[in-house]
Specification:
The protein has 333 residues and is an alpha+beta fold. The protein has helices spanning 33-40, 44-53, 80-85, 92-96, 117-125, 146-165, 168-186, 196-206, 212-220, 227-234, 244-255, 266-282, 286-296, 301-310, 319-328; strands spanning 2-5, 29-31, 54-57, 60-63, 99-103, 107-112, 132-135. The structure holds iron/sulfur cluster. Iron/sulfur cluster binds next to helix 5.
Length: 333
C-alpha cells in the first residue's frame, strides 16, 4: 500500500500549553467505544472523574465541554488523561488529531488539519516540496472505480499546477473553470484542450455582480462554534496575500479525491474557493483566520454538507457571483 503525505507531515508536534487555541476547547470530544469502556472501568480518582464526565447519546460516547473546555483539560493546558495514563490512554480522536487519513484501499493519503494552529503554521509556512511517498508493503485492494480515480488524480495534479503557475486571483478563476472540465470527464466526456488565456477572457465576460455580504451571509447561516468566529465575520479587513494559495492547496489535497464517493467535484471546488475568498475578505492574519475558518467548517460534518449543498442553491456560490468576487480582489503582498 502506498502512503502519500505532505513533506511537512512528520514535522508536526503538538505545542500543548503554548497553543493559542487548543483542540480541547469548544468541541465535545467523541470517545470511541474501546476507550470509553476503558474509562468506565478505570479504578481510582481518574476513573471516578471519567465516569462522571463521560456522556452517551445516539452517536456514542463523548466528553461534554464545560465552560467551553474539555472537562479533562487542566488549567495548565495539559490533559489529565494523558498526564496520568500517557498517550496510549487517549481516545482515538485525541490521539490522532490533527492528523488526517484518507484510505482508498491500495493507497492512503495523510494530511494535517488546518484547524490546529500549529498544523496551520506548517501548512502556511513550511517550504513547499513534493509529497513524500512510502510503501508499507501491504497488498491492500483498491476500493474505488479505477477510471474515475485516474481522472481525479490526473485533474488534481493539473489543478495544483494551475495554482502554482498563476497569481492568486487568476488561479482561482482558472480553478473554477478547470473544475468544470474535470467534472465533464467524470461525467463521461472527453478531455479537451486547456487554454488558460482563453479561459481568463471567457471569465471576464461571464463574471456578474458581486456582493461580499452575500458570501458572509452564507457562513453566518451555518452552525457557529466560537464567538471569535462571529467576531471575525462581523469585522472584515480584506487582505489577499499570495500565501492564501496554501489554503487552497490544502483544500484541493483534502477534498478533490473525495469526489470519488459521489462524483460531484464542482461543489467541492466551489466550497474550497468560497472558503479562501471568505478568509481573504475577513483578512487580519491569514493563518489565524484560516485556522478559525477550518475549525468552524472543516471540522463540522453538518457545515461541510450544508456548504456542498449550497454550491447549487445559494446566490453566493453561483458561477457568475464567484467569478465577480474573484475578479474584484485586489491582491496584497
Ligand atoms: S490544536 Fe493542535 S497544537 Fe493545539 S493543543 Fe490541539 S493538537 Fe496541540
Amino acid at each position: 500500500m502506498k502512503i502519500i503525505k505532505p513533506s511537512y507531515y512528520d514535522q508536526f508536534r503538538c505545542i500543548a500549553g503554548a497553543c493559542p487555541d487548543s483542540c480541547c476547547q469548544e468541541w465535545d470530544v467523541q470517545v470511541d467505544e474501546k476507550a470509553a469502556m476503558g474509562y468506565l472501568s478505570l479504578p481510582g480518582a481518574l476513573g471516578d472523574q471519567l465516569r462522571q464526565k463521560l456522556k452517551q447519546d445516539e452517536d456514542g460516547y463523548f466528553l461534554e465541554i464545560t465552560d467551553r473546555r474539555c472537562p479533562m483539560w487542566r488549567q495548565d493546558g495539559l490533559c489529565q488523561i494523558q498526564a496520568e495514563l500517557g498517550e496510549e490512554g487517549l481516545c482515538h480522536v485525541c490521539r490522532e488529531f490533527p492528523r488526517l487519513r484518507h484510505d482508498y484501499g491500495d493507497f492512503v493519503e495523510l494530511g494535517l488539519e488546518l484547524s490546529c494552529p500549529e498544523a496551520a503554521r506548517l501548512i502556511f509556512t513550511a517550504p513547499w516540496e513534493p509529497v513524500v511517498m512510502e510503501d508499507s508493503g501491504d497488498d491492500a485492494q483498491a476500493e474505488y472505480d479505477p477510471v474515475d480515480m485516474e481522472i481525479l488524480l490526473r485533474t488534481r495534479a493539473q489543478a495544483l499546477d494551475i495554482l502554482d503557475q498563476h497569481p492568486l486571483n487568476e488561479a482561482m478563476v482558472l480553478l473554477l473553470l478547470y473544475g468544470y472540465r474535470a467534472q465533464d470527464e467524470l461525467d463521461g466526456g472527453e478531455a479537451t484542450p486547456w487554454n488558460p488565456a482563453e479561459e481568463l477572457t471567457f471569465a471576464k465576460e461571464v463574471a456578474g455582480d458581486w456582493d461580499w455580504n452575500t458570501l458572509v451571509a452564507l457562513y453566518e447561516g451555518l452552525d457557529i462554534l466560537t464567538p471569535r468566529w462571529t467576531g471575525r465575520l462581523h469585522s472584515p479587513a480584506p487582505a489577499f496575500p499570495p500565501v492564501l494559495s496554501r489554503m487552497i492547496r490544502c483544500g484541493i489535497e483534502r477534498y478533490w479525491l473525495q469526489a470519488i464517493s459521489d462524483l460531484d467535484l464542482v461543489c467541492r471546488i466551489k466550497a474550497i474557493l468560497a472558503g479562501a475568498l471568505l478568509v481573504g475578505h475577513l483578512g487580519n492574519d491569514p493563518i489565524t483566520t484560516a485556522q478559525l475558518y477550518s475549525k468552524e467548517i472543516d471540522n463540522s460534518i453538518d457545515n461541510i454538507e450544508a456548504l456542498l449543498d449550497a454550491a447549487y442553491t445559494h446566490p453566493a456560490l453561483t458561477d457568475r457571483h464567484l467569478l465577480g468576487l474573484i475578479q474584484s480582489i485586489v491582491p496584497t503582498t
